[in-house]
Design a protein that fits this description.
alpha/beta; Rossmann fold; DNA polymerase, domain 1; six-stranded parallel β-sheet; 13 strands; 41% helix
Amino acid sequence: MIYIATIITAIDLWNMSNNGISIINVLPSFLLPPSSAITTVDLWNISNNGISIINVFPSFLLPPSPSFFLLPSSFLNMTKVILLDAVGTLFGVRGSVGEIYQQFASQWGVDVSPPVVNAAFFESFKTAPPMAFPGVESTQIPELEFEWWCEVATATYKELGVFEQFSDFRSFFRELYNHFATAAPWFVYPDVKPALTKWRDCGIKLAVLSNFDSRLYPVLAVLKLADFFDNVTISTEVGAAKPDRKIFVAALQKCGCAIEEVVHIGDSLTADYEGAINVGIKAFLLSRNTVLQPDKHQFATLLDCFDYSFN
């Protein structure tokens, strides 16, 4: 970050504005470290070279002082909170969902190709209703979560035509469901902990905002991610799932911050990026395994996002 100081007057600012110069980010010197002084002529040259200068604080907000600093606009809009999606952003599935499902199904005498199971699972997952249970008692949520996932798995194996081969499908699925509450089926992306550490060292508060269920709490713990986060917001507890604005508002309230102080990062264009943008939250799309789409604020890793947006 380069800090440029300047001594200017209200008349200078008026003249610059009337000559087509946009004036931004002029702060009183007592707020910033010392740096080199420039003149209004320098500011004129900067503007004519395509650099905008904006956001001048009115004099009544500041103590008497002729000394000001010029800063890039990103400094004033400093991020205080980063909301992060969980699955696909912080951690992913080892191998594939189909491989893990087949590993357990084979113990019940059911044999289907893992890629075929994987495709059927994601089709069932895509057509399932949002995993949110508005108006229910908190004590009911864990069993409702299980039933939601059991329905997805049931639809998967019925689509494959092998559902009837299970002697006790619910027992099979209970074993599988509990497995996903452990560290075994998950891996943390290599960029995650370095990026979280950098953000935390910068004084930024971190929080998780996810459509995953309450198994997320033990998973974050066993993956040694829980200590990075101040809080966790999940759809089943809020009663609304991303991209519903209610879950974003709930996360903002939990963090106790203004909307302009927050950034949301996730791997879903609809649920994460568009969901956040529609609420007014600045967002970045994490595209780990997908083709980057133009016109989106998107990155391949969290470290890329840090380097671009938070330095």
